[in-house]
Design brief:
- By secondary structure, the protein is mostly helical.
- The chain is built from 12 helices and no strands.
- The chain has helices at residues 12-26, 32-45, 50-62, 66-79, 84-96, 100-108, 115-127, 131-144, 149-161, 165-178, 183-195, 199-203.
Length: 207
């Protein structure tokens, strides 16, 4: 599951960590026991690899234990400072805990952001009311990965808030074409068309 243990002799504690990480990474069912066991052994051993700390942070984020998610993401970050997934978890936990500026700063300071990180930053900027930057970042994410249709939806939602309805309708058209059954895509497009007094067209997209 992580490189240091591959093919190596494992202590009982290391084997527990190895198995718990596997459960957290690959299980689709309940994994609270695995997370609790992993947390106990990581605290006990101060494990030097970042992967188990990362998986534990992610499991807490999924369970909305944001304070623990932040703490374990930071433990992981001491072992892999620029790992994009670690930084994404840290930023999300900070943002959700009400520390918006700190969460945004984590992603802004990340070196070589990928499309996903750029998009996450755009979402955070949008939530903070920084509309111009949110749109610019969403477009930058699309340049990195042109099939990232949720970035078009974000642009549409931001333009709706700014009451720029033509720009919003244009932005929503792409994700709606890709995911026509997505409620947010359809609702945003309908709202844009309705504001533009194109009710007949909007009616075609209502439930």
């Amino acid at each position: 599951v992580f490189t240091r243990l591959s093919g190596a002799e494992m202590s009982e504690s290391e084997e527990t960590i190895y198995k718990a990480v596997g459960v957290l990474r690959y299980s689709r069912g309940s994994y609270a026991d695995a997370a609790d066991s992993l947390e106990h052994h990581l605290r006990e051993t101060g494990h030097p690899e970042y992967e188990p700390w990362l998986e534990l942070a992610w499991s807490h984020l999924k369970r909305k234990n944001f304070t623990k998610a932040l703490a374990f993401a930071r433990e992981a970050a001491t072992r892999a400072p620029e790992h994009p997934r670690i930084r994404r978890i840290e930023a999300a936990a900070l943002y959700t805990l009400g520390q918006e500026r700190e969460g945004i700063a984590v992603l802004e300071n990340q070196v070589n952001r990928g499309a996903d990180q750029t998009f996450r930053l755009a979402v955070m900027k949008s939530g903070a009311g920084e509309h111009e930057q949110a749109i610019a970042l969403a477009r930058a994410a699309l340049k990195q990965r042109d099939n990232l249709w949720i970035a078009w939806r974000l642009i549409g939602e931001v333009e709706l808030r700014r009451k720029r309805y033509k720009a919003a309708a244009t932005a929503f058209f792409t994700p709606l074409a890709i995911e026509p059954n997505d409620d947010r895509n359809r609702a945003g497009f309908v709202k844009s068309l309705t504001a533009l007094r194109r009710a007949d067209e909007a009616a075609d997209y209502r439930d």
